[in-house]
Amino acid sequence: MITEQPGTAQGKQASAPPFKINKVGHVVFYVSDIDRSIKFYTEVLPFKVSDVNEQGMVFLRCAANDHHTLALVPRPEGQMAPADSVRLHHFAMEVDSVDTLFTIRDWLKQHGVQFVYEGRRGPGSNPGIEFLDPDGYALELYADMDKVDWENGVSRPGDQWRRAKSLEEVVANPLPQWPPKQ
Question: Is residue 119 within 8 Å of 72, Cβ to Cβ?
């Protein structure tokens, strides 16, 4: 259990790893209907197919130059993902602005996508929208996540989180500058 208070650095490790992780590389989903999932990710969301391997696994890319950000694995008809697979809470993808989130929200509504959540929750203070893909995986599109300096690790204090239940409320209740200007 983490015992640090919101807005403070996590405890220092005795010896830190001698490297940094640059970004989350990719996510792989088991899907029940590969064609339906390809259509969703390439026609409703802006992914492009990079490759398909000999087992039918589909590799998709988005804005980065990486070969793939998402991969789809067909599961046998009528079967769930293998028992030893990890369950996913959600897969989050960054977009460039809150204005873009409004555009995306309208686009997804036109495609019959139901939302699980929209607004701003708390830590990270990032506004976003959440919805399910055709297999029920939770996806989040977000913008403007707070930045935290790698060395000092200080994040926005909890009393500045300003939770919001819609994108309109996000815009109507802007956050104080973070990090504060010196």
Answer: no
Q: Give bridge partners of residue 59 from the DSSP assignment.
A: 51, 71
Q: 25-78 is classed in which CATH architecture? A: Roll (3.10)
In which element (H, E) is residue 127 found?
Answer: strand 127-132
Query: Percent of the chain at pLDDT above 70?
Result: 88
Please give the Cα distance from 147 to 138 (Å, whole number). 24
The pTM score is: 0.77
Q: What is the DSSP letter of 77?
A: T
Give the separation between CA 147 and CA 7, rounded to whole angstroms: 12
User: Reduced to 3 states, what is the DSSP secondary structure of residue 128?
Assistant: strand
Cβ atoms within 10 A of the Cβ of 68, count?
22
The whole-number average pLDDT for the span 47-56 is: 92
Q: In this structure, which topology does domain 87-146+158-176 adopt according to CATH?
A: 2,3-Dihydroxybiphenyl 1,2-Dioxygenase; domain 1 (3.10.180)
Where in the chain do CATH 3.10.180.10 domains reside? Answer: 25-78, 87-146+158-176
pLDDT at 7: 52
The set of residues, in sequence order, having a beta carbon less than 8 Å from that of 69 and lying 6+ positions away, is: 25, 26, 27, 47, 60, 61, 62, 93
Select from 62, 65, 74 the least CA-distant residue to 28: 74
Helix (H) or strand (E) holding 36: helix 34-39
